[in-house]
């Protein structure tokens, strides 16, 4: 029996078409896109084709606005450190929400060691930022606002268009980390009105370790990687062409299948939520009920620990997560859950269930059945539960 | 007829074994190495296996000293910016040679905008640094010395062990850019005595866009990419596992075949040098005759332009380079050639011929035959040549 993968947020499996394109690219044995001869020309062409596919997926005005990177983390570091460096004479104040991904938070913490100050804007109980809070936080020293498009633990989608409008009025650069959104929900950089947008291919069934940064024409930003003239002088380093080709195909498919994928995962999500609410008591669904990703459910299950649930589910061949894989080395409670008001105890019992186009309703049902048993078993061993219910 | 690739320095073709391993990895559809369940375990295991292969290739004391990156450029940026940040309170003086790769030079230029000063040490006519010059340049504010192991345009190998000894005595961190050396000549980080060493997989027949940074245990350095806990908290971002697996196999093969590869390319180099000297007059072989890479020949051909030679060779199905692919967007004369005393005119007529294990003696002979004709044709059109010889 295969594994039921309900941990897509840590990385989606490659689609067959992406696999085929990457295998073809490995076999083709491309040259260096920067070489001034035929071996390089072929490679440069493949590179630009992928760039066009990605540009179309996010409706960028030009493929030139797409810079390929080694993934979401590099894109985010590039966006934040690149603007911080370019604008440092103008001001050193940055605004972010307090539920950003660690790539944003740790980058900001790093900059604080270099004289930058950060205003961390709170979120409400559903994980939404209030755009007014951002407007109020802007000073004449503010150079950057960084608010994620959607949250990787609870799925809440932020009012990005409104925030972008405020940023534009105040002439502050606006970056959004769209890593968990791209390929899952429609993203239109022009409609959103953002200056910078980070993304990673593995969130839309492309390979891990490759991604990109959308840089709206005219945005003031420095490279993170200095060196050669690649990527229009915005990101040095020989390109990871095989992975970029895979990302290009994944982007094409994501654009083409967006509607069908949305319908599919929404159906799974509804089924999952219905099952959770009917079959398990004392639970709490985290995140905004409407402004949310359709492919993720965060549920806090009282009285027991998420880690134990994950281990017991794994024995049954089901993969879920307690939180983002990037933070799995850390034992601290999730900063996202504490920001939306979950106390430490209920945060401990939180599962993140994330799915993709390859999951089936049968898998959701099987997960629910196993989960009910696992929860009951763990609760029967929990002194807290026995005391509360006894 | 296939293309004769004598431009290996821009990127070696993937070896069949590397292709097979990458294709297998694409098919396996690994999970995220950081996921706390079975899908992640498999991936984590593959990741650590590759790390061991790379560690063995450079004789690192422990695989923990290897941090995977998106290639040589990221490794170099990480090394220099990471030490600059970690040591900034102690001093802001850095020493490098004036023939470093653009990834080093442009990174240093960037740091100069943040209050760092750089001493650029000259090289002799063969492109070698004098270790005494480095010793003299060290002040109590010096935090880093960065000297490349071998040069990517002329192949000269630097006296790294001697420089490392000086750096260690003065307690200055020493980084070497070994991108063009690794897999080509034996590299032993412990014998060299370096603290940091940058490398890229495509120089030893692995994929482009992946590489690593050797960080000797105890070296004071900050991450370049902040975020998740990957790579022992030293490089955030979901790993590019497919390429890393390819690099691991390429490293294994490079270690195993080192002797045979050296013999093969040395034979090709000798044949090439003999042919050039016998068949074309008014040429100059750049770089040190002994302390040099065995897989690269830089030749300055008087009175004509390298770009024209490259174009005419390309029509005959032969790929060579005038300089590093990373700089091919730039029209300026090579900083390496001017540093070793080539004047602008002869620098213009410079070809970089670089080869690998897949090249044959027949290809060298064919190249020489075509080159003789091309040079004669171009010289006959050159007013400079006609005047000099008329």
UniProtKB/TrEMBL annotation, chains A, B:
Function: Catalyzes the removal of elemental sulfur atoms from cysteine to produce alanine. Seems to participate in the biosynthesis of the nitrogenase metalloclusters by providing the inorganic sulfur required for the Fe-S core formation.
Signal sequence, renumbered to the chain: none
Enzyme class: transferase
Record-given protein name: cysteine desulfurase
Annotated NCBIfam families: PRK02948.1 (NF002806)
Spans traversing the lipid bilayer: none
Protein family membership: Belongs to the class-V pyridoxal-phosphate-dependent aminotransferase family. NifS/IscS subfamily.
UniProt keyword list: Iron, Iron-sulfur, Metal-binding, Pyridoxal phosphate, Transferase
Cofactor(s) required, per the database record: pyridoxal 5'-phosphate
